């Protein structure tokens, strides 16, 4: 399997967001029923993932973190193999050894996922260094959260990338939450982009709930990295509308703030826009929802049928 | 045979491996300054100075290794590894396994440690056991320039992350190093002296203390066998067990804190697999559970001496 080519029409962007939503809702329901482990969902943040990933070329490489379902699915990951991984099954992308938190899929160019907050930032310069020293095309896209931007690795990474001219597109998904801490309590500035400019790295903030705006901003930023061979940063401002890790009653979340963002749900708003612009009919929207639901049903059946890893996998792959 | 210091043996290994494989690169805090001959030969892209930021140095090595380069990073003094712990332990050590074998991490981390320069505990802390305890990593600590060159060449070719510790006290001591291509497998201990009465197992500078002890013991009619582990993971269990089955007595010696040190593992290994062959209890000699002082006599007192090893071995042989 190879990375999916970028969407060439706005309907595909919507369909990808629907797939991510349906995939994560299946896990939420499965974990509530005790059939699957809980995960860190990206519900509410689908546009930020889909907009960026669809701005990339097949040869580009992605580093991501614990909240990765959107990045992986937008890149063309098979939801069945993803779900198998979440469930610890043999047919998962990492043979069931990762679970949901560190899923890499080399075949899709999704490399070195880490759930250590900030570790993707520490590895991105090396990935980019290899790309340029080995003369490979393809920029490196590093997804991280506002919480990761508070780790030292963010600052060390940006300094080195600027210093060594490394082709990295840093993408901060500022979803307002760092587990159970609101970003207001943790960040000295309103935006991560402000920190990047201090390192001489061009940075831009975009509405992360508007998939079309994210796509456009990411295309421009990716082109700038490609042409200059130097890093850029894109901050997508969005909101984690579910909890940190399922289950999570969100008792600590400000109701008005959450309601405000729920009213700006990226799927609802983009579907309304396509309908209003005559780019999507009600019938097409319904067919799209059916198609996504049946793909998730197939994925779930595949994952549930996949066996657990054999006992001899206990130590295999610990060493080369 | 040419003579090199351990420091120059590192340079010789780097030069040979960088000539052999253009994917080998080296970077760290001052490596391009101190080993400028590498920059002259291989260029400023392959040999780089870095910011003083051990975390990103190690993380960059991890990312580069996964994507096909073979980085060697110089993190200077072993205590500075604390800043690089996440990258080495959580990324390099675990992401091969957690990814189901999708990535390999052929990287070498160089770090100096040990008594000799009076630099105190924030530059001298023998932390090698921490990394032995971390899955996915290999750990090497040689005692001679020849072994340093041969083991470093092998470490650079290994597809796993290797922590390569350099004993400060040995850094500028010259030793014979065979010219040309000479490799040593990781996980092969050396029996540096044969004997039938007692086994002395060590690594790093205390191997030399064990050899001095063996000389003193020989003059008292006791034949000590001295084993230089050279690599701590993989550990050459067969050589250790073979020797103890022959001598029936074991003294394990290292400069690192005795508590949960490599010696504890070796004592347990022998107790599990060669208990019946033991003629006397196992003795461990190691540093105290205290930071190392800068003051010369205190620094020296933290290292097991030849006299202390001799005494311990003699007591074992009289039981
Ligand atoms: C080094 C480290 N510290 C803490 C955690 C626990 N943790 C997991 S995710 C998370 C929040 C991260 O926030 P952010 O970077 O904003 O990403 P988000 O979860 O919002 O996508 C925390 C604290 C961790 N996994 N790693
Ligand atoms: Mg966040």
Structural write-up:
The complex is a heterodimer of chains A (320) and B (319). Chain A has 320 residues and is α/β, with parallel strands linked by helices. Helix content of chain A is 45%, strand content 10%. Chain A has a 5-stranded parallel β-sheet with strand order 1-2-3-7-6, sandwiched between helices. In chain A, strands 4-5 form a two-stranded antiparallel sheet. In chain A, helix 4 packs across helix 12. The mean pLDDT of chain A is 97. Chain B has 2 domains: 3-176, Rossmann fold, CATH 3.40.50.970; 190-317, 3-Layer(aba) Sandwich (Rossmann fold), CATH 3.40.50.920. Chain B is built from 13 helices and 14 strands. Chain B has helices spanning 6-20, 31-34, 36-42, 54-66, 85-92, 95-98, 128-132, 145-157, 206-219, 237-247, 262-273, 296-301, 306-317, and strands spanning 3-5, 24-28, 47-49, 70-77, 108-113, 138-140, 162-167, 174-176, 190-193, 198-202, 224-228, 231-233, 250-257, 283-287. Chain B has a 7-stranded mixed β-sheet with strand order 3-2-4-5-7-6-12, sandwiched between helices. In chain B, strand 13 (250-257), helix 11 (262-273) and strand 14 form a beta-alpha-beta unit. In chain B, helix 1 packs parallel to helix 8, helix 4 packs parallel to helix 5 and helix 9 packs across helix 13. Chain B is globular, with a radius of gyration of 19 Å. Classes of the chains: A alpha/beta (320), B alpha/beta (319). The interface between A and B is large, with 44 and 45 residues. Bound molecules: thiamine diphosphate and magnesium ion. The site of thiamine diphosphate (TPP) has 16 residues of chain A, from strand 4.
Summary?
Chain A is α/β, with parallel strands linked by helices and 320 residues long. Chain A is built from 12 helices and 7 strands.
């Amino acid at each position: 399997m190879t990375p999916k080519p970028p969407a060439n029409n706005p309907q595909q962007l919507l369909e990808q967001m629907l797939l991510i939503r349906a995939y994560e809702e299946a896990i939420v329901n499965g974990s509530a029923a005790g059939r699957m482990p809980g995960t860190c969902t990206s519900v509410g943040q689908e546009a930020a993932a889909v907009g960026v990933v669809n701005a990339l070329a097949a040869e580009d490489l992605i580093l991501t973190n614990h909240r990765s379902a959107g990045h992986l699915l937008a890149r063309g990951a098979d939801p069945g193999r993803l779900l198998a991984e979440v469930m610890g099954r043999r047919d998962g992308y990492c043979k069931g050894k990762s679970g949901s938190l560190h899923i890499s899929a080399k075949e899709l160019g999704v490399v070195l996922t880490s759930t250590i907050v900030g570790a993707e930032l520490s590895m991105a310069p090396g990935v980019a260094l290899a790309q340029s020293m080995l003369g490979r095309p393809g920029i490196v896209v590093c997804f991280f959260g506002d919480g990761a931007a508070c780790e030292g690795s963010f600052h060390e990474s940006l300094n080195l990338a600027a210093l060594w001219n490394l082709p990295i597109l840093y993408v901060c998904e500022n979803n307002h939450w760092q587990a159970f801490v609101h970003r207001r309590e943790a960040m000295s500035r309103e935006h991560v982009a402000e920190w990047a400019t201090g390192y001489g790295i061009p940075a831009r903030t975009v509405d992360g709930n508007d998939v079309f705006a994210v796509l456009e901003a990411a295309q421009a930023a990716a082109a700038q990295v490609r042409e200059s061979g130097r890093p850029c940063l894109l901050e997508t401002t969005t909101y984690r509308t579910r909890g940190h890790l399922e289950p999570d009653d969100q008792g600590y979340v400000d109701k008005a703030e959450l309601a405000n963002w729920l009213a700006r749900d990226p799927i609802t708003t983009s579907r309304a826009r396509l309908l209003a612009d005559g780019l999507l009919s009600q019938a097409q929207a319904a067919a799209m929802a059916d198609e996504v639901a049946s793909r998730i049903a197939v994925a779930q059946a595949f994952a549930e049928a996949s066996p657990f890893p054999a006992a001899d996998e206990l130590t295999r792959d610990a060493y080369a | 045979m040419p003579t090199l210091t351990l420091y120059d043996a590192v340079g010789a290994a780097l030069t040979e491996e960088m000539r052999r494989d253009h994917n080998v690169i080296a970077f760290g805090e001052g490596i391009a300054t101190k080993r400028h001959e590498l920059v002259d030969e291989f260029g400023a892209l392959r040999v780089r100075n870095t910011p003083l930021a051990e975390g990103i140095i190690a993380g960059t090595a991890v990312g580069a290794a996964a994507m096909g380069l073979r980085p060697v990073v110089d993190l200077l003094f072993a205590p500075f590894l604390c800043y690089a712990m996440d990258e080495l332990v959580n990324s390099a050590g675990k992401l091969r396994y957690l990814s189901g074998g999708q990535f390999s991490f052929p990287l070498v981390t160089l770090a100096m440690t040990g008594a000799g320069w009076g630099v105190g505990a924030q530059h001298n802390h023998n932390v090698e056991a921490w990394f032995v305890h971390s899955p996915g990593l290999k750990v090497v600590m040689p005692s001679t320039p020849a072994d340093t060159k041969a083991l470093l060449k092998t470490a650079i070719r290994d597809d796993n992350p290797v922590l390569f510790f350099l004993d400060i006290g040995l850094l500028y001591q010259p030793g014979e190093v065979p010219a040309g291509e000479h490799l040593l497998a990781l996980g092969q201990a050396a029996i540096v002296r044969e004997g039938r009465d007692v086994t002395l197992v060590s690594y790093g500078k205390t191997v030399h203390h064990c050899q001095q002890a063996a000389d003193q013991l020989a003059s008292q009619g006791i034949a000590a066998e001295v084993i230089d582990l050279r690599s701590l993971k993989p550990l050459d269990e067969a050589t250790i067990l073979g020797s103890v089955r022959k001598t029936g007595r074991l003294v394990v010696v290292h400069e690192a804190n005795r508590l949960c040190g490599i010696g504890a593992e070796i004592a347990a290994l022998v107790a599990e697999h060669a208990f019946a062959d033991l003629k006397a209890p196992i003795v461990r000699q190691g540093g105290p559970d205290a930071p190392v002082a800068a003051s010369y006599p205190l620094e020296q007192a933290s290292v097991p001496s030849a006299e202390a090893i001799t005494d311990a071995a003699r007591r074992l042989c009289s039981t």
